[in-house]
Amino acid sequence: MVKLNLRQIRRSVAREIRVYRLILDDSRCPRRAKLLLGAALAYLAMPFDLIPDFIPVIGHVDDAIIVPSLVWLALRSIPEEVMEDCRQRAAAGVETPTSTRKNPDSRAKPIQR
Fold first, then answer.
1. 30 CB contacts (<8 Å, ≥6 apart)?
2. Which of 31, 67, 91, 98 is paired with 50 by a 20 to 30 Å CA distance?
3. CA-to-CA distance for 61 and 53, rounded, in angstroms?
4. 66 shares a domain with 49
5. Residue 69: domain span
6. Is residue 107 part of a domain?
7. pLDDT tens digits for 26-71?
């Protein structure tokens, strides 16, 4: 039972990371959201914390408060259609955003002589 829940959590975290990667690469995403998501990832990767972990309770709680808060703020500023598009592409396994192309409807046209 516990293993099943841990697997579900691991899968959902991996799916959300894929969604966030797609959001960061999407040109329709506001700069504010990209900065907040980048700050959350940077804070997780930093070798030091704002509040050191050796301080009892507060040292570990800051990670559990700061990172989700940054992600929550970022997700609030992302348009709903961008979120849905990125979630669908993450579920389908597509790793490149469609909106990074200059004109997604343009196709290579054959040269006529």
1. 77, 78, 79
2. 31
3. 9
4. yes
5. 30-77
6. no
7. 999 999 999 999 898 888 888 777 777 778 888 778 888 888 999 9
